Amino acid sequence: xANGKAALYIEFADDFLKQxxxxxxxxRHVKIVASSAYKILKKLGFxxxxxxxAGLAGLLHDTGNLLGRNEHQRTGALxxxxxxxxxxxxxRDIVTVMTAIMVHDDSEGxxxxxxxxxxxxxxxxxVHRSRVRKVNDIKGDIHDRVNYAATESDLSVDSESRLxxxxxxxxxxxxxxxxxxxxxxxxxxxxxxxxxxLEAEFQLFINGTRMA
Length: 212
Ligand SMILES: [Fe+2]
Ligand SMILES: [Fe+2]
What we know:
This protein is α+β, with helices and mostly antiparallel strands.
């Protein structure tokens, strides 16, 4: 974790979302997003510094939920500023992470830089059964159903072909693929736009079949 304050913010943010009935957005989610965002930029040949900033953006991107789900990308950017200032980061790095966090939920059509592109893909790609908290009550919530049905999730990046692939194994007894599309159509569009900002291509495979 970036520092003790970040860990505390994430704990309270996740607890708030838990009480709202959302899937897990805590330490597990932010660590996966951080490591995927770092990996995406490293494998695509971006420099170590940018990859590290993407990792930090991944760790801090959902802290804004501490102050309410709505606009959490903006409050999160401001909380990241406070944390990074305390850690002594240069202003340019702070603003890079802030602007990545600002667009992670809705880019409004602009992906300002590669750090933002990597964060968007890493965040949208975290679909997995382990994020579901109400495992005995998944029927009524499509998000819970789709996440619970995802028994395997693998994000791979091929340096040569610049191909970013999300491979999901979905248990169609729990959630039909059409459920997945209802939820993730916009997300996958965002991933494709983000990949093109990285001069790469994004592909989604469900149960071995290419979907997008
Ligand atoms: Fe978020
Ligand atoms: Fe997230």
